[in-house]
Design brief:
four-stranded mixed β-sheet, about 160 residues, alpha/beta, 8 strands
């Protein structure tokens, strides 16, 4: 298997292994690849988890137990392309369990990492060549926390009934 050129590296205080196990449970084609432990030279306690390499849907990541110095912010998030409302609902429920909802399909999971849970249909509707229809969809989406595909469809079609 070819080495991935660029790998997202995620800094956790002390929950890297727990996070990697949680994330790999969410997506098909996901797995833990390797766990490395701190040795006697530190800087962590010898024998504790230093890094966990894992794949989510074939994309490689590394989680580091780096201590409490740095924290996640919304400046970096992971966007998930969801096939339908059922996938949005499932991921939203699992990722917000212990986390928090935000606006427009954004959330923070229990580890503080930001995610965008985006139904594919939203992208399609926003790309409509009719700017009036796309604007109605955008206006509707801006009122949401978790994205509601039917509400987007209703907003898209609202002008067609007139």
């Amino acid at each position: 298997m070819a080495q991935q050129k660029i790998t997202p590296f995620l800094w956790f205080d002390d929950r890297a292994e727990e996070a990697a196990e949680f994330y790999t449970s969410l997506f098909p084609d996901s797995r833990i690849l390797e766990t490395q432990r701190y040795g006697e030279a530190g800087p962590g306690v010898a024998g504790t988890v230093m890094t966990v390499s894992f794949e989510l849907s074939g994309q490689r990541y590394v989680a580091l137990n780096g201590g409490p110095l740095f924290h996640f912010t919304e400046a970096v998030s992971f966007e998930v392309d969801c096939a339908d409302q059922a996938e949005v609902d499932e991921l939203w429920a699992r990722l917000t369990d212990g986390g928090e909802e935000s606006a427009c399909g954004w959330l923070k999971d229990r580890f503080g990492l930001s995610w965008q849970i985006v139904p594919r249909r939203l992208t399609e509707l926003l790309a409509d060549p009719d700017p009036v229809k796309a604007a109605r969809v955008m206006k509707s989406m801006l009122t949401m926390r978790k994205i509601d595909v039917q509400a987007l469809e209703d907003a898209y079609a609202a002008g067609d009934a007139a």
